[in-house]
Amino acid sequence: YYNILLYSLVPLMLVAGIVICAFWVYRHHKMAYPPVLVPTQDPGPPPPSPLLGLKPLQLLEVKARGRFGCVWKAQLLNEYVAVKIFPIQDKQSWQNEYEVYSLPGMKHENILQFIGAEKRGTSVDVDLWLITAFHEKGSLSDFLKANVVSWNELCHIAETMARGLAYLHEDIPGLKDGHKPAISHRDIKSKNVLLKNNLTACIADFGLALKFEAGKSAGDTHGQVGTRRYMAPEVLEGAINFQRDAFLRIDMYAMGLVLWELASRCTAADGPVDEYMLPFEEEIGQHPSLEDMQEVVVHKKKRPVLRDYWQKHAGMAMLCETIEECWDHDAEARLSAGCVGERITQMQRLTNIITTEDIVTVVTMVTNVDFPPKESSL
């Protein structure tokens, strides 16, 4: 009888022992790894950025759509602002633009004023917002579609655009808020130049910009970025020297094309003003492929047409020479942005003293003028 009882209890004790051990292991594991709490409801949007605090921001209307999202006109308290909204898949562009605007020394009359950046929406459906000053006139491209410009207006737009790009390109140590590195824009085009009410230009859209800091990598230096129509020959060829000055000269090629857009809508010369067209639109239409651009710009070495009658206006003739030196096939021969700004100041000053009485003197002045040196800031 006792043997039967013993044989019956042993398995029960073993089972009990296994259960106790399993419970101890479970308790130990539970203490080491506390449970993750899953929220039962949407946690709501993240708090607003400290730059905006709790100020209400109301979206009013879409003003533009681009590669990295859309731009809204919005109201922040009693002023209008621009809100650029990026989808989450374009986070890198939003992050890059935010970082560039946050660098020391980025407050400048000819660089779009930055106000703040935010993430809006739920964890599943997030939009990335970039808030800047709003300019009713919009981009230079939009303005030129609807308006022609006088010689003085052209000079003001071109000079302030050049000043903005020259400042962007400049390395400036010892500022109150730190060291401003040299920055290449990498997507200069008339869509990315905005106009204030007095036609002062400011450079916008730093989603592709590169900063150059001593001893640090410039980051993702993939060469073939930007808008195809404005790509320099060396970019189209994929033959870029990944040094700072090479990237700055790529910006200068594109600036030459923007100056051509301005010239094409100027009333200064004695001749018809062209309908607004993008660079190379006459040659290859509105949607060129990379191969189209390579054929025209690299192999045929073509550039947009500089009209013969532009040369008959003293200032326009000087502008044409400046444009040609910006879009030179040889990158090292291109002008710097600082030099372009100086030249435009000089050509406006010279043409302002011209009168019909001293037309002969004018020709002498223009042919004998000493331009500022090409490489004033590179």
UniProtKB/TrEMBL annotation:
It comes from Ovis aries. Keywords: ATP-binding, Cell membrane, Disulfide bond, Glycoprotein, Kinase, Magnesium, Manganese, Membrane, Metal-binding, Nucleotide-binding, Receptor, Serine/threonine-protein kinase, Signal, Transferase, Transmembrane, Transmembrane helix. GO terms for molecular function: activin binding; activin receptor activity; ATP binding; metal ion binding. SMART domains: S_TKc. Belongs to the protein kinase superfamily. TKL Ser/Thr protein kinase family. TGFB receptor subfamily. It is an enzyme of class 2 (transferase). This is Serine/threonine-protein kinase receptor. Residues 57-350 form the Protein kinase domain. One of its GO terms (cellular component) is activin receptor complex. Its cofactor is Mg(2+); Mn(2+). It catalyses: L-seryl-[receptor-protein] + ATP = O-phospho-L-seryl-[receptor-protein] + ADP + H(+); L-threonyl-[receptor-protein] + ATP = O-phospho-L-threonyl-[receptor-protein] + ADP + H(+). It comes from the Eukaryota. The lineage of its organism: Eukaryota, Metazoa, Chordata, Craniata, Vertebrata.
